[in-house]
Design brief:
This protein has helices at 22-39, 42-62. The chain contains two helices and no strands. It has a domain at 19-62. By secondary structure, the protein is an all-alpha fold.
């Protein structure tokens, strides 16, 4: 596991990944979803996709440049 991960088991879903690792987490959850679908475990695949969407939302919110252009 990465030493950059923070939070604990009581942290909200999607909040345990630091901002700089969000792109990696998005790819990881997408890959896990594909594997679980291949194994026929659609419940876990949907959980992975939900977490991926949560990470994507966080990436859009936290990575926006607040300075005007």
């Amino acid at each position: 596991m990465s030493t950059k991960l923070n939070g604990n088991k009581f942290s909200a879903a999607g909040s345990r990944v630091p901002t700089d690792l969000l792109p990696t987490a998005i790819r990881y959850e997408a890959a896990r979803a594909v594997i679980f679908e291949d194994w026929g475990n659609f419940v876990r695949a949907n959980e992975c996709l939900a977490l991926k969407r949560c990470y994507e939302r966080r990436a859009m919110e936290e990575c926006l440049d607040p300075r005007p252009t």
